[in-house]
Structures are given as C-alpha cells and as structure tokens.
Amino acid sequence: MARISAASVVVVGSLNVDHIASVKSLPTAGETVSATSLEKRFGGKGANQALAAARHGAQVTLIGCLGDDPDGRDYRNHLRREGINCSAVNTVKGGTGSAFIAVDAKGENQIIVIPGANAALTAPSLKMQRSRIEVAKALLVQLEVPLDTVIEAIKLANGREVPVVLNPSPAQADFPWGEVTINVLIVNNGEARQIFGADADDIADELDAWKQRLKEKGVRTLVVTRGEKSTLVLTDSGLKKVATHKVKPIDTVGAGDTFAGAFTTHLAEGSPLLECVRWANTAGALATLKVGAQEGIPHRGDVQSALSA
C-alpha cells in the first residue's frame, strides 16, 4: 500500500473527456476517413495532475468545473473513487470540457478541444476557494483554464507563501511573467524555448544569463524535462542534472502530468528538491508503460519499488 502523505496539495485546472478515434491516416481538408475504433477516456491536465498527486499519496483538492451532463457526473464519481476531494469542483450548466482526437497508424494526431465547463472557472469563482489555497502545502496549476483564474490562484498562494508549481502548458504568450512568483516552473525543452527564448540544453554554458532570465520571469526554480535525457534543475545556486528512469515507452501521453503531480507531492512533503525530481522522473517513466493519460499513472508503491530495484 502507498504511504498516505500528510501533504495537502491544491490543483487548479481543467477536466476533459477525451474521444479518441484511431484512423489509418489523418484527414486532409474536406476529406472524410473511417475510424477503426473509438475510445472515451478521462483527461484534462488539471485532473491528470490531481490524479497523479493523489496516487502518490497526497491529500488532493481539485478546483475546476464540470458540466451538468452525464460526462460530468461520471467524471466526478471517477475522481471520488480515486480519493480526490471534489467539493471545489463546481457543476455548471452545459457540457463538460472535451477533446476529439484522431490518431493515425504512425502515432501522429489531430486534436480539437472544446473548453466547455472549463471556461466557467473564472477568477471571481476562484476567489471563493481562497481558504483552500491558503492552507495548502503546495499549489499546482497549468494553463488549460482561463489565464486570469490561474493568476488569481497564484496571487492567493503568494500572499500566504504557499509554494506554487506551474506547468505552463499550453504555453501562452500573454502570461504576466514577473508579476507573480513561481516557486517551481516545470517545462519541456520546447516550452522553455518559447518562454525564455533560448535553448535549455545550453544552460550549462550560459549559466549567468539563464539565472538572470529566471529572475526577470519571477521564477525561483526551473525544472526542464527532456524525455530520456536527464532532467535539468536550475536554481540560483547552480545547475543540477537528475538521471531519468529507463523504460521502453508504450504511450507517452500523460507522462508530463504524472511528473508534475508526483513532484508537487514530494515538494509539499518537504523533500529536498533533487529528491522530488528523482521521484517524479520515475513516476513519469512508469506512466508511459500503459496506454492513456490516466490509466498509466502509477501509485506511490509502484514508484518506490522501481526506485529500489
């Protein structure tokens, strides 16, 4: 059994129901193609990361919105079964957020996202959850809900010195960098390039410049995931590299969300930074061994076993 953490983690983010069609080839403009199968799965970065933290043993409260449709009801029941506190997940009139995904034989995809109820997670509604954020051991946020809402959550956490972990995906050009404090920014190589205008692989050769970039953006710690390559951890004291856990991946969808949830759990517990990354690297790797964003998310005991092997 996984050890239950005393750490309280609040996740503000999206909940989507994914409809995944398998096709031989992706359609071109105006073309109709037949699917060989259609699957329906729970997704959305907010819920994925909340689930990862919960399976890692944290006491998780998810703040988000679901529609008053059957998908919303089913999703709420799913999260409750996983032990996630859903009392701050509001039910709003209309449809639950959804994504329609076509995947071809080569693994390439086309995705259409309908925000649905996620758009109803407004800054004023977020303020009503102030007390939950202010007593948390860590706040975890992404960018699949309205940006104003994310900024409000971060400001509430900053006001009470609650550590903020931001996974800025999908990247948004109008994020007000420098106006809020980000304790830990988790990005992949592409996101790092979009945000900082430089290649993260060059951090070691441009250490002072990268430290200055972090300072200007209001970021205290930068964590850069790089697939199979070691994860980069940059703080004001320098650059560290943490080796990844080697596996033969089957499906990488959800690996980044698993990393973020596992990392934030250990951060909330007070673990040393590099230890947080070591656990997150292993959790993210294990998540690639099953198909589906949530289906592959490992429990803490599985990660512990992998680390001890």
Count of strand segments: 13
CATH architecture term of the domain at 49-64 and 121-308: 3-Layer(aba) Sandwich
Give the number of helices: 10
Compute the gyration radius: what is it? 19 Å
Strand order of the largest sheet: 5-4-1-8-9-10-11-12-13
Task: Summarize, please.
The chain has helices at residues 45-55, 70-81, 123-127, 130-134, 147-159, 189-196, 207-217, 255-269, 273-286, 300-308; strands at 8-12, 16-23, 35-43, 59-67, 89-92, 97-103, 109-114, 138-141, 164-166, 182-188, 219-226, 229-235, 238-242.
How would you portray this structure in words?
- Keywords: ATP-binding, Carbohydrate metabolism, Cytoplasm, Kinase, Magnesium, Metal-binding, Nucleotide-binding, Potassium, Transferase.
- It holds the Pfam family PfkB.
- It catalyses: D-ribose + ATP = D-ribose 5-phosphate + ADP + H(+).
- Its cofactor is Mg(2+).
- The chain has helices at residues 45-55, 70-81, 123-127, 130-134, 147-159, 189-196, 207-217, 255-269, 273-286, 300-308, and strands spanning 8-12, 16-23, 35-43, 59-67, 89-92, 97-103, 109-114, 138-141, 164-166, 182-188, 219-226, 229-235, 238-242.
- By secondary structure, it is α/β, with parallel strands linked by helices.
- The longest helix has 15 residues, at 255-269.
- It is globular and about 55 Å long.
Summary tags:
309 residues, alpha/beta, UDP-N-acetylmuramoyl-L-alanine:D-glutamate ligase, nine-stranded mixed sheet, four-stranded mixed sheet, 13 strands, 33% helix, 27% strand
